[in-house]
Amino acid sequence: MKKGKVIPLSEPCLCGHEWRNVKECLDTGWVSSVGSYVERFESDVARYAGRKYAVACASGTAALHTALMAAEVGEGDEVIMPSLTFAAPAFAVRYTGAWPVFVDVEPRHWQIDVQKTADFISRQCKVSRKGIFNRLTKRKIKAIIPVHLLGHPVDMAPLMELAGRLGLVVIEDAAESIGSQYRGRNTGSAADIACFSFNGNKIITCGGGGMLATNDPKIAKRSRHLTTQAKADGVEYIHDAIGYNYRLTNLQAAIGVAQMEKLDDFVEKKRAIAKRYDEGLRGLEGLLLPQEASWARSTFWLYTVLVNAKKYGMDSRALMKKLSGAGIQSRPLWRPLHLQGIFKGCASFQITEAVRLYKEALSLPSSMTLGRAGQSRVIGIIKNNGRI
Ligand SMILES: *Cc1c(COP(=O)(O)O)cnc(C)c1O
Description:
Elements: H1 18-28, H2 36-48, E1 53-57, H3 60-70, E2 77-82, H4 88-95, E3 99-103, H5 114-124, E4 125-128, E5 131-134, E6 140-144, H6 156-166, E7 169-173, E8 181-182, E9 185-186, E10 193-197, E11 210-214, H7 217-227, E12 231-233, E13 238-239, H8 250-281, E14 287-288, E15 296-297, E16 303-307, H9 309-312, H10 316-325, E17 347-348, H11 353-360, E18 361-364, H12 372-383
Parallel strand pairs: 2-3, 2-6, 3-17, 6-7, 7-10
Antiparallel strand pairs: 1-11, 4-5, 5-6, 8-9, 8-15, 10-11, 12-13, 14-16, 16-18
Helix pairs in contact: 1-8, 2-8, 3-4, 3-7, 8-12
This protein binds pyridoxal-5'-phosphate.
């Protein structure tokens, strides 16, 4: 490691009313899972997503699990999702006893490939009155989870059209995309249910936490019930389902409320960082920069480039090591889920792009706190083929 501070990949920016709000919780004793900040955080996120209801959860993963249960996805069902994603949505599907089905991402914006998904259904599935069945596994396909990867929105219109035609529930995984827009509307506003994450490396954080948002009162009610231990009677402690303690605390929500006030500002900062990377790295041999679709406003949660080993002179992992040697954190994308041993038994369909992206992609430091000098250092080293 060189002298000087490490430049982190993505660190939180706690620069608003976080201290004040947390102090208020401590001073008043409202630290646990009931309190005014939980309600405020829920209404802030509901408003952001243009939804009637939002239910705070302990994590984004818990929100996904709850959303699936509320949508009645269960034992032996299947759920379509991209192979290239952080594993949480696939884990959540397995918690319910259902199985993920992995599809590819499209090459331009690296989001779930809706055309290939449609091909999968027309070639591999039997569509009948009883629903859609995977011919190979005989399982019923219940839902689809589009993940807005790296803060760039999925092309939701054709996806919603496909799902609507087939009667599939759509659960948007907006864990990486709060603050981004699809055709002028915030991500998380298009599907039946949307899930958000407030983990420390996400755009806004409350230390750890999540939320689901929906317009469906039944889903909202069922979700709240399941996340709060499924009490049918809170005095006699009669439970009518297997419940979960998936609540968010008022302390966490106090931070979340302060972070929501900063969301627009954070997105501006992230976009400015992306613009500086674009300008600094444009035209560099062997490096492909991320592209924003004409209908998208991305948050560039993690600014990610593709490294062509032949043309650039080294591959993404070698560049990662060089950057690390200079005290700069970077990271490849997630290993595609269909290649992971734990998901060996799951169906997948024609996945090629996800594998290529996994090999070539490298995410660069993208914190709101990244200064111009730090970013220039990152750009300089990449331009200089890893030499400091
Ligand atoms: C971070 C993330 C999650 C999980 O959120 P947690 O709050 O960490 O549980 C889910 N999906 C995606 C795509 C994520 O990036």
